[in-house]
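Recap quiz, item 2
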Amino acid sequence: MKLIKSIVRPNKVDEVKDALAKLNISGMTVTEVRGHGKQKGHTAIYRGKEYNVSLLPKMEVEIVVNDSLADEAIKAIVEAARTGEIGDGRVFVFPVLESYRIRTGEKDA
Amino acid sequence: MSTTQPGAGSAIKVALDAAREALRGDVARGAGGRAALEQHADRVDALLRALYAEAGGPERAVAIIALGGYGRRHLCLHSDIDLLLLFDGRIGPSEERFLRAFLHPLWDVGVVVGHQVRELDEFADLETDNPEFLLALLDARLVAGAAGLFERLGAMFHTAATHAYILQSLLALIEERHARFNATLYQLEPDVKEAPGALRDLMAARTIAAMTDPLLLQRGPADPGRLEEAEDFLLRVRSLLHLEAERNQNVLSHELQERTAEVLGYPGAEPRQRVERLMSDYFRHARTVSRMLEWIRRTAPTPVGSNLGLSRDGIRFLDPVQAARTPSSWIAAFQAAIDAGAGVTDEALSCIQQHVARYRPEDFTPEPRDRTAFLRLLKPRPGLYARLSQMHDCGLLGRLFPEFEAVSWRVVRDFYHKYTVDEHTLLTIRNFERLVSTQEPNRERFKTVAAGLPSPELLVLALLLHDVGKWRDDEHALESVRMAAEALDRLQVPFDARDTVLFLIRNHLQMSLVAFRRDTEDPGIVKEFGRLLGTEDRLKMLCLMTLADIEAVSPDTLTPWKEELIWRLYVDTYNDLTQRYADELIERNQAGLLELQLGRPDDLPEAEITRFLEGLPKRYLQLFPREAIYRHVRLARNIGSDEVHVSLEQNDAVWTLSVVTLDKPFLFSNICGVLSSFGMNILRGQALTNPNGLVLDVFQFTDDERFLELNVDAGVQVLHVLQDVVSGCADVTALLRGREQSVLHSRGAPRVVPVVRADNDASERYTIVDIVAGNALGLLYRISRVISRHGCSVELVLISTEGERAIDVFHITKAGVKLTEAEQRALTSDLQSTLEGIL
């Protein structure tokens, strides 16, 4: 199993969700996050005064999928979240050792 | 010298002596209490009526009115006879003759008359230099003369403002009087009229109750019967003091105590024993009076409006029966509660709840002033949510807005909303109310936006109605607009305000949609959003509405993350609206142009409108209503060089000056200078230029020195000075010099730290100069003069003020192009120095 954690533009979350749904991936955790990568934020000006906007609002989408589905899921996320501009985000992939269902205590295969 | 018949004086003397003799008899028997004094007052009434009849009526109606103790019919043997002689109009020779004929016989027989001679009109304004007279007027009683005149006096005198003033004065007088007696009622030789616990305190308790809540006397610490007993006792003692001393003597001295105890029949072998019993009775009664007065002073509601009082548990109707009959007074109760930082009492809410179903929505705001008062109620400030919730709980809000009633307790099942639609709606108002006075540092930026709203009550009205369409299960925003339009029509909300409220309701989900689901880094998305809004005011309102709405969904819905997205969209859109609008000019096939042409008045040919509009920024069409645009077109007609065409309109306290002329150096600063030279405080405005050099400047200002109001031809005068200054015949600097040097307008250290920033990237054609500074007389003049001195041309200006801050955005060029870096630096440095008061 793989944990796929993607940081995407807030306005791209719906498209990512739709793309994953097409792969029958419906379980996910979506979190509002703030941060920056290469984009590093920028300076906003309001009424002549400069405001440093260093941490940008992003969305984090986490899914856990079988190894066999991981590549397809990553591809779907990247395609759905891409605009081609700086600030499109990142996808991180982690190995998952074990997974348990809390309600029943049953271990997932 | 008396002018009455020779026999009149003696007849009066006979009658007066008889009256006094009868009272002496009663008093000597120890029966000089209330009944005897009332009888005496009746006899004096009869005597005055006879005198009135004999004196012959004057030309103008007159009323002989008993005041104070005589008005209450508590007339002691040597009390002054306090009278008001009231005339219906100016006092002339005929009235003076009447006064002589009426008063001289009284003086001749030695009656001490405390008289006031007044014309009715004198009561039009509250008299604040003689509170004792106002107190005496509370006991006014018609003895003889014109009953209609007496009634008119009552109507003029008994107003909420007068009662409030009398009450305040009375409380101060009580304090002063008690201080004279060292604030104790236990005096060995008490003054039975003035001392604490004596007759004046008793009257004060009754007066306060009468003016605030008559039922207080029933609910006080002592049985009402005991107060009556105390009064009768005190009057009997006082009567005896007058009889024994043969003058207006009210101190129960040691010598008089023995005689009083004897006449009043106190038992005891020794005079000392009788006196002790008398004084023990005195202190018992005085304590009853004193306790009652203290209780009433603590408990009485303070009058805060017509039939409204503020008591410890909140705002109440002083007369619930009257309140039940006048639904138009109910909203005032909630307004008074907000003003006092209190609630509306349960009794008042029950009264409304019991009767609200009898009335139609219009009955609560029948007059224009009631409708204005309702909008004023909606101004966001602490207590608004709580009072609106009370209005809702007692059924008033739902009756006032049947549209709102449709979503009462309405449950919409979704994953997000935690409350019924009505409570969600009221919570949006609570959130806005909290934002306006928030102390949270991370909310400060939105608080500043809220502080800049010219009519925040319109946002509250929009919040109140934004979800009324949710009685349906499908798309609710449009249904809310339809229903809200009916409510706004009923309230007769002015056209512009109605338009704004409906816009906000229609688009109340748009900012969330764009902020959270669109790529706001795409300038095209921001521009499109800006186009939808049109003006900064609408942007501000929609931004705050969005925040308040999201926060009311559930306690966790509005996260700092969402706030950040909304803020960024706000800033980007604000910059687009203020800095980039000049790049989009009105074209021949512009949207909105067709409607403008179709609705044009007969005197305006299509070509003239087109010629005027072409080349102006598109934003112009959103900034001004259609009628204003037609007015501008007319002003531009046949304009020649050095000519100035002007229109001046007033709307409440705000004046709008529209100026059309042809561009020339220093034009903008000259116009600003002229307005400042007349003391006008410029609040908002736009300066626009079209490619043909036609200039349209529109200023909204307040006339703080009331120049336009106090001078008949003031408008003409302003126009002449403008004409002279623009054509170069007069120097505005000279006009302003006196004002600039006046201590009244001394600028001192600026309280708002000035910010000046030039930007060459925002607009395609112009250098943008953003200026934020403390608002001051002549500020725009000084700024624009510096800009002109640098050889720059002022093409477009947006002027706004928020409280003491002036926010101005100048679009400028030099020799037709943007400024170089060096030119920008030189200009901003000069501007900064000017604003800091260095230059």
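Helices of chain A lie at 13-22, 67-81.
Chain A touches chain B at residues 9-11, 14, 32-34, 44-49, 51, 53, 57, 83, 85, 87 (CB under 8 Å).
End of item.
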